[in-house]
Amino acid sequence: MGVYLQENKYFIMSDKYIKQQKQIIQQVKDSISQGQSQLSIIEMRNDYENDDAIGLASLAFPPKDITQIISKEIIAPLQSLDYHHFYYSSECLHITIKSIRTVHNPPLFKNEDVVIVDELFTQIVQNFQSFTFRLEGLILFPTSVSLTGYCHQTLRKLVQALDLGLKEIGVPDNKKYISDTVFFGNMTLCRFTDQPSASFQNKVKELENIYIGEMRVTEISLVICNAVCHPKTKKVIGTYKLSQ
Fold it and tell me: pLDDT at residue 10 above 60?
């Protein structure tokens, strides 16, 4: 009976946190529509693939079955309407778990920063359980389109532990967020090279509530890369297993 009650409590807490995530996402959409977004936005570029501005972040990479669904159900339809934007290939797709240093040229971090961040992640990540993102719904940002990932509170606890640790070692996250307690998965699918067409924006609106599936996160990678995590710039510093 105790286990049953504990499980029910877990699901109630999980539902409550997902509700908070949806409220935050609505705030993001409202602020974007009003032109008042306070988030860190990657500026539009002509050439993302060869962009040499790099950042440091911890990422989770989706499995092949998820990337295939995303490519077929979202990326291909959008690409057919506005082909000139940058669309993420399966090897570039990822969810940022914890940003550390935003992309910039020259980089906003040093080699010694990377070393101590790697040590921090080695210590912290193993203390948290694996978790699942429910991939559902699109967000049209000023310079990109993203797929949303909902999850339970493990993500909040992990992000806050990493955030505290980064501050203590002197490499704090320099990205702006709408909340420091409610976090959600954000998988960028497309970055704009110019203003998207009306037909493109209408298609995003049509797919706004699309459900893709569940993505289990069992490990997190510390990565140096450019804004689109292109293989030309991608360097994996370390990969850290979550407990099962």
Answer: no
User: At how many degrees (to 10) do helices 154-168 and 111-124 cross?
Assistant: 140
What stretches of the chain adopt beta strand conformation (E)? Answer: 54-60, 86-87, 95-104, 131-140, 144-150, 185-191, 211-217, 219-225, 235-241
**Taking Cα atoms as reference points, which of 47, 50, 41, 138 lies closest to residue 85?**
47
Average pLDDT of 153-169?
97
Q: Cα separations (Å) of 244 from 32, 150, 200? A: 38, 19, 41
**Closest of 53, 74, 50 to residue 62, by C-alpha:** 74
Q: Which SS3 state, helix, strand or coil, does residue 138 take?
A: strand
Cα dihedral sign, 39-45-47-52: negative
Task: Round to whole Å and give the CA distance between 7 and 4.
Answer: 5
CA 3 to chain centre: 33
| SS3 readout for 179-218 | CCCCCCEEEEEEECCCCCCHHHHHHHHHCCCCEEEEEEEC
- Taken as a whole, the chain contains a residue count of 244
Residue type, 79: Q
Q: What is the pLDDT of residues 105-129, one digit of tens each?
A: 999 999 999 999 999 999 999 999 9
Give how far the C-alpha of residue 60 lies from the chain's centroid of Cα atoms, to the nearest Å: 8
What is the rounded CA–CA span in Å between residue 212 and residue 13?
23
